[in-house]
Amino acid sequence: MNQLAAFTNLTPTELLVLGAVVFVASMVRGFSGFGLSAVVMAAAVFILPPLALIPMLWFLEMAGSLAMFKGGMADADMPTAKGLIIGSAVGLPFGLLLTMQLPVEASKVVALSLLIILAVSQLAKLKLPFLATRVGTYGTGFGAGIITGLAGAGGMFIALYTLARNLPARTMRGTLSIYLLGAGLLGLITHLAIGTMDHTAIARGLFFIIPTLLGLYAGRALFVPRLEPFYKPFCLTLLLGLASLGLIRTVSN
């Protein structure tokens, strides 16, 4: 355990807690198609600052996207996914640069506040018809890229977009999976260029791929037709609770 802790530059306790958080977050991703980064960010922001979590989460999102690629390709709205990916690639550098300029505590507040706003918007079934246009698609991708750089929660913004399109649950899951894969591949270039992807982030990302895959397959096993109506409210309620608790603790410190 001590060797693993040294490898990831974490204490043994932090390693175990993060491993449990990643497993639960990956179950959410396997069940819903999104939410892995958002849940980890909400629950783990007191162990690592957002700027340290975001490049680590790149590995976890990529592992999840590759594991779900086959089903995602079959169910996804591919033209929409491509537009979202292009927009996200443009928006991500702005979000990362903004995060790098903010103090750690301020970045936590921004990240958690964004998660709460997105979760409430989706629980309220907020629908924005203009998003279902070509400009809306690229604009949504751009916004998701900024949010990914700030809070690692671009998938939440894309999920809000799919609500405006009234996409079925399986199409929504598939589109999100393809978006996260494509945006991740292009996002790596940004991380390397800006310098946020360092050796520590790589070590943590590689180690936490294991609980990611275990949680992902457990979550996928729960995605059965009779549970589909409940998957989104469950994930969003969990995320809202975690982010709200985290924000209260951050502000009160």
Can you describe what's shown?
The protein is an all-alpha fold and 253 residues long. It has one domain. The chain has helices at residues 2-8, 12-32, 36-44, 50-67, 69-75, 78-101, 104-123, 134-151, 154-164, 169-194, 199-207, 209-222, 228-252. The model has no long low-confidence stretch (mean pLDDT 81).
Helix amount, in percent?
over 70%
The class by helix and strand makeup works out as mainly alpha
Structurally, how many domains make up the residues? 1
Name the quaternary structure: single chain
Helices and strands, in order, run as HHHHHHHHHHHHH
Mean pLDDT: 81
Keywords: Cell membrane, Membrane, Transmembrane, Transmembrane helix, Transport
InterPro entries: TM_pro_TauE-like, TSUP
Family: Belongs to the 4-toluene sulfonate uptake permease (TSUP) (TC 2.A.102) family.
Protein name: Probable membrane transporter protein
Summarize the helices and strands and which ones pair or pack.
Elements: H1 2-8, H2 12-32, H3 36-44, H4 50-67, H5 69-75, H6 78-101, H7 104-123, H8 134-151, H9 154-164, H10 169-194, H11 199-207, H12 209-222, H13 228-252
